Amino acid sequence: ALPIWLLWQALSPGRLQLELHGLPQLGKHWKHLLKKEQKASKQPGYVPGPQRPEGRFVPALLDEFLEVLDQVVVPAEVPAAEGEGGEAMQTEGGPLVLSPRPLLHCERLLELLVDLLSQLPTRRFVRTLLDDRAILVKAKLAPLYRHPSASLYWQLVDLFQFYMTFPINDHTGEALTDEDVTQAHYEKVCQLQRLLFKHWPKLHDLALANCGTVEKREVLRRHLASMSHEDLIKLMVKQLRLVSETDPWIASKPFLQEVMLTTYERRRSQREVINEMPLYPTEGVLWDENQIPSVNYTGEGCLALPKLNLQFLTPHDYLLRNFNLFRLEATYAIREDLADALGRVGAYWDDSGDVPVVKFAGWARMALPLNVFKITEVRKPAVGEFKPAAVTADIVIDTRNLRGNIRAEWDELKLHDVLFLLTIRPPSGAEVAEMFEGGRKPNAAEKYGLVYVRGCEIIEVKDEGGRLMNDFTGRVKPHEQKPPEGFLRTLTVALDTAQYQLDMNHMARVKGAEDMYGTFNLLVRRKAKENNFKPVLESIRDLMNEDVIIPPWLRDIFLGYGDPGAAQWRSLPIEQRLRTVDFKDTFLNAQHLREVFPDYEVRFATGGKDEEQLPPYRLTFPLEAEGQGEEDGAAATPSGRDAQEGGAGGDRSR
Hints:
The strands form four sheets. Strands 6, 7, 8, 9, 10, 11, 12 and 13 form an eight-stranded antiparallel sheet that branches. The two termini are 45 Å apart. This protein is an alpha+beta fold. The chain has 24 helices and 17 strands.
């Protein structure tokens, strides 16, 4: 009862009324708390709930966050508290830099809010307060969100937004399906349209439009732009109750518009986001210090990473956190391997021809220059998807300059092996010297001129004569296998369709963007034992696409709630206990069975001597009444026959 009273006392009156109206049982509880508080107010020394330290903590923390948020971005001539503010943001009023201490304060507070939202006991009432104060919208509208050096802040805000909109019923803990989320969204849109039709004649076009049109951000923005500031305040504060009338931010029309857009625009489901997420790391993720630090993490700053806590919201939340963490762990190992190869190949610019080209003076065991890279097929998307069904390409490499044992390693490449395509443009000497100015240490990508990284998976390998190598599909008979011809190898690979679609969208959106698929000049492989991250990620993703079914007696314990002892067999209700269990080939013989259950009297339903009772066995355990200290014996029977319902007579001794 305490969190309700203390936290929800800080809600705006309109939002509190909406919440209690939507939760009748909670409304009754709230009235009961009001009566108790009225009685307590007559006692000497009474302190109202909003004035108690525990009641002021979270609201005061949010107020402090918004106050400090305006102090992070400062003019360049204002000295920062300590250190530099990173890259400056150019504005009409001059360059703006970041103040380190206020920035760290904002990042730590966002991390705290994410932790509160990612656990059901605290999420249940904190999320309503955060939504009522529109903390997410205010965090996005702050100048810090637009600063080029605030990448960690962006990522923390994105993580904060993810848990603010997580599909779960905050009060029951029930996971919401995509259909539930869609139905609730359209019901909210329809309520908006009914209100507009009744009270806003000039917005009848929006009120009579279909839901698919109203939920579009551009359409909503266009209609909201036609409204005056006073009309927006009346609509959102008085009628929709999306913002408190005491909130000082209502003086900003862009803030009101953004709250409206965030509330009624369509959000992509988590399943769509996961399916469109690339499995291979790119250059943007590989050297992102906020997600994959290159030095030992000391804890002074925070990382934009999900945490494996003791509690999780849903099984999907558990899988998603493991998916992201395993992906980043694999990315760290890939980064180390790529940095090692980049330091060995010795890339340089050759200006002897009409057009400068990149050549390699060094040698690396795990890398080879590309002779040819050509995309051969881009299949049309499947129904309901936006990414291609498949993207295949041919790669030609030359192994003539390799020693015999190294060439044999490259010839052992086979189906499903993962490779990495790199574009390298080595920097000039002046550019390298500039990187080290001021004691700065550039990363491997900057130092060696790594521009693009894309992953791919081998479909087939052919020698110079066009014959298949290392084929396990049965197309090449064992007696037809011969040593490979020549030194040229043609690799047919499958590119990541999700990443390919993202790249194509970027090229279409940015005028003059480069086609990175025509710039690859180096191929890198990894050790097979260390390169199994892709099937693991695919398995986790496939699980997230299915409805994870967990038995009711195990669900709460799996998510970190309830009493762990409640999942024990003796703690389950009698009707949920499984009496007969087929143990398959668990036991070697009858003697082994008796040794495993020394406290039970084992009796075979088929009769006869132990030597005649051959496995496998099916065991029927006796029912244990409430409070009964002794149980009957267990009956065993070979699995091929029906088990008896009751156990044999006799007591067991402990």
